[in-house]
Amino acid sequence: MLKLKNPIHFSSIEDAEIQLQTSVQSGLPSQTAHERISEYGENRLQSDKGVSAWNIFFRQVLNAMCVVLILAAALSFGTTDWIEGGVISAIIVLNVVVGFVQEYKAEKTMDSLRSLASPMAHVIRDGKQETIESHMLAPGDIATLKTGDVVPADIRLVETINFETDEALLTGESLPVVKNARAVFDTSEEVPVGDRINLAYSSSVVTKGRATGICYATGMNTEIGGIAASLRQSHPIFSQKPDPSDENYKKNLKTYRFRVFLYYVKRILGLNVGTPLQQKLTVLAYVLFIIAIVLAIVVMAAHTFHVSNEVSIYAISLGISIIPESLIAVLSITMALGQKNMSARRVIVRKLEALEALGGVTDICSDKTGTITQGKMITRRVWIPSFGFLVVETSSPFDPTAGTVSTVHQPMETLANAKNQKLEEMKDLRAFKELDPVLKISSLCNLSTVSINKEGNWVAKGEPTEIALHVFSSRFNYGREELLKSHKLLREYPFDSELKRMSVVMQEKESNPEVYAKGAVERVLERCKTIAAHPLDHERRNLVLAQMETLASQGLRVLALAKKSIHYSTEWEAVPREDVESNLDFVSLVGIYDPPRAESKEAVNLCHRAGIRVHMLTGDHPETAKAIAKEVGIIPPYISDKDPNMSWMIMTGPQFDALSDQEIDNMKALCLVIARCAPQTKVKMIHSLHRRKAYVAMTGDGVNDSPSLKQADVGIAMGLNGSDVAKDASDIVLTDDNFSSIVNAIEEGRRIFDNIMKFVLHLLISNVGEVILLVVGLAFRDIHHLSVFPMSPVEILWCNMITSSFPSMGLGMEKAQPDIMERLPHDNRVGVFTKSLIFDMIAYGLLIGVMSLMTWVVIIYAFGTGNLGYDCNSYYHDGCREVFRARSAVFCVVTFCVLIMGFEVKNFDNSFFNLDGISWREWTFGYFFRKLVENRFLVWAIALAFASVFPTIYIPVINSDVFKHKSIGWEWGVVAVAVILFFIFAESWKFIRRTLSKPHRKGKLRRTLSRTITSQSKLSETDLEKRLFIQSRNVPS
C-alpha cells in the first residue's frame, strides 16, 4: 500500500489525490497501474488460492477407494504374497497418477471458468472508462460504483450521488450507510470504521446510488483483508469453542474436542469432502469395505478359522472383488468434463452440486426482461393526454436516426368519441410544445448513454428501458449529453424496487428547479395531482389506466412520466423523497416493446415436453406479462382471457403476497405469471413450490434477488447484466442471459445424471458377478481341503481397474439420449441408486456370476479331470494345469461380459442393435454401426481393454506368476459360448424391461423398472397438459 502522511479519511479529496499520485479526471496511466500491481501485488485475499497440486494429490491418495486398496496391499505384503501386493501397489500408483492428472487439468479448467464469473471493476485509466477484473485494481485507480456492485477495494470517495453501502459484512451494521464524499474528519477525532462516511470498503455492497472514488488499499491491505488475516479456521465447528467462564466448561470442552476429532476423521476418510453425490459414493465405499470384511470372515469361517496364506489370499480376493476401485475418480472426471461442457453452452457452473441438481428441476422461475425477451427495448408508442399518440417503427434499438415516427392527433377529451384515425408520418422530427416535457424527462431522468463508436455504429450502455427512452429523445436532438449543457443535476433519487420509480431534480440555467419522474404507472399516478392542466380526478385517472391497459395488451411495457416545477431553492440532500415526489403533473404514458428472443418459444415448449413448469416473475404490468407469456407459450395459446384457469395462471405480486400459506397450498396449481413482482414475492414463490415438493431453479440479476437465489435449489444469475451480489449468491451464471441457456443447462444436467447412472451400473455389475463367483467358489476345495479361487486377486483388480475404468470414463462422455427432454425430471431425493438400478445391477451381475461359474465347472469337471491340485492359489505346478487354464477362461468371460455391458448400458431399455429405439423399418446396418462408434473414447477404451486380455494370457511368467493363469486353446470355445449366452440373456432382460414398460401393463415390478431413465417416465400429451396447466379437456395423444 502506498504510504500516506495521514489516514485517508482525514484527507480532503484534493489531498488524497496528491498522496495517491493520481488524477480524478483521467485516472492512472495503464503502465503506472501495472507497475503498482507488480509492486503491491494483485487485489486478492490470501484465501483466494489457485489450484493446489498437493491438495489434489492428497485427495487422490486419501479417497475411500484408495484407502481400501492400500489396506489390501498391506494385507498382501503381510501374507508374503509379494506379487499380489506389488500389483495392487502398482494399481494404486496408476490410479493416483491418472486421477491426479485428470483432476489437475479439470481444476485448472474450472479455475479459468470461475474467473469468467469473477467480480468486475469499472475504472478510469488513460482518461477512458474500462471494465477490468477486480483483482487487477491498483492503488490510485479511479473506480466508479453503481447500485448492485460489490466494492472491489477500499476507496476514498470523491463524488457521491445518493450513495449508500451495506457494510454488514465488515461492521455488523444491519442498515445501509449513507456516504458523503465531501466529509472530512479532524485528526483529533477517534473515528470508528463504520463512521468513516467518506470511504467505501472492499466487499461491501452498493445498495443505492452512484459514486466515484480513489482506490487507496487493495488485497490484504484492505479492512476486510485484515479480518481475513486474523482468521485461522474456516469451518463453523472451530467457532464453537466453549467459553472458559461457563460453569460446564470442562464438559463442553470435551464435547468440542470430540467434534473436532470427528471432523478431522471424516475429512481424512473423505466423508465431508466433495459434492453430496461424491459423499454418498464415499459412504458406499466404506459400506462395501465392511461387507468385504464380512466376506473375508466368511472365507475364514469356511476353513474353520485355520488361516493359512492360501486362506488369506482367498479372503483378500473376495474383499477386493466387491470394491469398485475407480468409482470416485471416474465421477470426479465426469463432473469436471460436464462443467467444461456447460461453459461451451454459455453456462458457468460455480458449484458442482448444481450439476447433480439441474437434471431434477421441476419448476423454473424466470425473469422476463433480457431472459425470455431480448432485453433490447424500443419505445414503440407514446400517449400524451393533451395531444394524442406518437408511434415509432424501427428495428434498430440503438440508432435514433433509423425508422419512422408517426402521430395521431387525439387529445384525451376526444378519446371517447374518436374513430380510428390514420397515422401521419413526421417528416421533420422537431419537438413541439406537448412533446418537450416528454423528451426532457426521457433524457434527464435517465442514466444510460447513447453514442457512435469508432466504427461508426450506434452503441448504448445502461438499463434497456432507459436506453429505449434515451434513443427516443435523441431522435429529436434531446440527448442527455446535449441537455446537460444547459441543465444542472441538483438531486437524484434512483430507481427503487419497492417504490418502482426514479426521479431527478434538474435546473435549467436561471429557471426554477423541476422534478422529473418516471416509473410504474400505478406508482407514478399515485403521486400526481394534475393532468394536462386539469385536476387528476377519478374519471381522468380511469382514463389513464384504460390507456395503460390498451398499451399493455399489445405486449408493451408501460411507464408513466411526470413533472413539477419548484419555486424555491433548498439543501436538496435534506429533502425527503416523499416531499419531492408529490403533487406531480402527469405528462405521458410510454409503451416500450421488448420482443421475445427467437429461441424462447421453443425453449419453453421443450420445458413443457420435459414436464418442467415455467413461471414468469416480472415487474411489468399484468397485461404486458400476459401478452409475452402467451407469445412464448408459458400460457397455452388455446386458453382465452375468459377461461376460468386464467384466474390462477396470472396474479400480481401484491395479490400473491396477500395470500396465506394455507390459501396458496389450497390452490389447484401455482400461478404461471406474477406481474408487479417484488423480491419478497420471489422468495414466497420458492417456499410455496418447496411445500409442493418441487425442485426449483430461480433466475435473478439484482441485489434484491440474492435471497431468492439462495433459497432456490438452483440459483441462476445473469452474466451480462447481473450484479456481483447476484452472481455470488448463485449456483450457475448464464453468460448470455438467455432463457434457452437455462434449458441447455437442464439438458446437460440430465445427460450427466444419466451418464453417472450408466457408469455406476457398469462398474458395480462386475463387482456383483465377481462376488457371486468367489462366494460360490468356496465350495471348490483342493486335496488339502482349501478353497481354490476361480479368479485371482490380480485378475479381479485388472477387471475392476483396467477393463472397467476406461470404458466407464467413456460412458461419462456419452451424448444425451434423443428423448432426454421428453422425460419427467428425476427425483433428486432418491439420487442415482434407484430401485431400478439395483434391479439391473443384480440381474446383470448374477448373469456374469452364473456364466463365469459355468465356464469354471465345464472346463474343470466336464472336459477336465476335476483335479484341483494343491497350493494353486500360490504358484503354478503341473498339478494346477487345469485350474490355471480354467482361470484364464473365467477371466476372459468376466472381461468380455463387462466390455459388452459397456455398449449395453448406453441405453437401459433399447437393444444393443437399436440403441435409440427407432422403428425397425427405418433401421439399417449403417445406422447401427454409426451409433455403436459415435463415442470414440468408449470404442477405443473397449477395444484396448479387449486387446489387453491376450498379453496377460500368453506372455510367460506374467501369466503364471502374476495373474495365476495359463495359456488356453480349446477353452476359447467355452468362453465364446458363455459370452454369447450372456449377450442373449442381457438382450432378453432388456426385452422384459420394454415389455413391462408398456402403458397397459400394471404391477409393482413395472413401477419399479419405470423409475430409471426409460420411456416410462414419459407422459401422454393429455397427462402432460394436466400436469402443467390443470386442464381436463380431451387432447389426442
Automatic annotation (TrEMBL):
<dbReference type="Pfam" id="PF00689">
    <property type="entry name" value="Cation_ATPase_C"/>
</dbReference>
<dbReference type="InterPro" id="IPR023299">
    <property type="entry name" value="ATPase_P-typ_cyto_dom_N"/>
</dbReference>
<feature type="transmembrane region" description="Helical">
    <location>
        <begin position="937"/>
        <end position="958"/>
    </location>
</feature>
<dbReference type="InterPro" id="IPR008250">
    <property type="entry name" value="ATPase_P-typ_transduc_dom_A_sf"/>
</dbReference>
<comment type="similarity">
    <text>Belongs to the cation transport ATPase (P-type) (TC 3.A.3) family. Type IID subfamily.</text>
</comment>
<keyword id="KW-0067">ATP-binding</keyword>
<dbReference type="InterPro" id="IPR036412">
    <property type="entry name" value="HAD-like_sf"/>
</dbReference>
<dbReference type="InterPro" id="IPR004014">
    <property type="entry name" value="ATPase_P-typ_cation-transptr_N"/>
</dbReference>
<dbReference type="InterPro" id="IPR023214">
    <property type="entry name" value="HAD_sf"/>
</dbReference>
<feature type="transmembrane region" description="Helical">
    <location>
        <begin position="311"/>
        <end position="337"/>
    </location>
</feature>
<keyword id="KW-0915">Sodium</keyword>
<dbReference type="GO" id="GO:0046872">
    <property type="term" value="F:metal ion binding"/>
</dbReference>
<keyword id="KW-1003">Cell membrane</keyword>
<feature type="transmembrane region" description="Helical">
    <location>
        <begin position="759"/>
        <end position="780"/>
    </location>
</feature>
<dbReference type="Pfam" id="PF00690">
    <property type="entry name" value="Cation_ATPase_N"/>
</dbReference>
<feature type="transmembrane region" description="Helical">
    <location>
        <begin position="842"/>
        <end position="864"/>
    </location>
</feature>
<dbReference type="InterPro" id="IPR059000">
    <property type="entry name" value="ATPase_P-type_domA"/>
</dbReference>
<feature type="transmembrane region" description="Helical">
    <location>
        <begin position="884"/>
        <end position="903"/>
    </location>
</feature>
<dbReference type="GO" id="GO:0005524">
    <property type="term" value="F:ATP binding"/>
</dbReference>
<keyword id="KW-0472">Membrane</keyword>
<dbReference type="Pfam" id="PF13246">
    <property type="entry name" value="Cation_ATPase"/>
</dbReference>
<keyword id="KW-0406">Ion transport</keyword>
<feature type="transmembrane region" description="Helical">
    <location>
        <begin position="283"/>
        <end position="305"/>
    </location>
</feature>
<keyword id="KW-0547">Nucleotide-binding</keyword>
<dbReference type="GO" id="GO:0016887">
    <property type="term" value="F:ATP hydrolysis activity"/>
</dbReference>
<keyword id="KW-0812">Transmembrane</keyword>
<protein>
    <recommendedName>
        <fullName>P-type Na(+) transporter</fullName>
        <ecNumber>7.2.2.3</ecNumber>
    </recommendedName>
</protein>
<keyword id="KW-1133">Transmembrane helix</keyword>
<keyword id="KW-0460">Magnesium</keyword>
<dbReference type="InterPro" id="IPR006414">
    <property type="entry name" value="P-type_ATPase_IID"/>
</dbReference>
<dbReference type="InterPro" id="IPR006068">
    <property type="entry name" value="ATPase_P-typ_cation-transptr_C"/>
</dbReference>
<feature type="domain" description="Cation-transporting P-type ATPase N-terminal">
    <location>
        <begin position="7"/>
        <end position="81"/>
    </location>
</feature>
<feature type="transmembrane region" description="Helical">
    <location>
        <begin position="970"/>
        <end position="992"/>
    </location>
</feature>
<dbReference type="GO" id="GO:0005886">
    <property type="term" value="C:plasma membrane"/>
</dbReference>
<keyword id="KW-0813">Transport</keyword>
<keyword id="KW-0479">Metal-binding</keyword>
<keyword id="KW-1278">Translocase</keyword>
<dbReference type="InterPro" id="IPR001757">
    <property type="entry name" value="P_typ_ATPase"/>
</dbReference>
<feature type="transmembrane region" description="Helical">
    <location>
        <begin position="56"/>
        <end position="76"/>
    </location>
</feature>
<feature type="transmembrane region" description="Helical">
    <location>
        <begin position="82"/>
        <end position="101"/>
    </location>
</feature>
<dbReference type="GO" id="GO:0008554">
    <property type="term" value="F:P-type sodium transporter activity"/>
</dbReference>
<dbReference type="InterPro" id="IPR044492">
    <property type="entry name" value="P_typ_ATPase_HD_dom"/>
</dbReference>
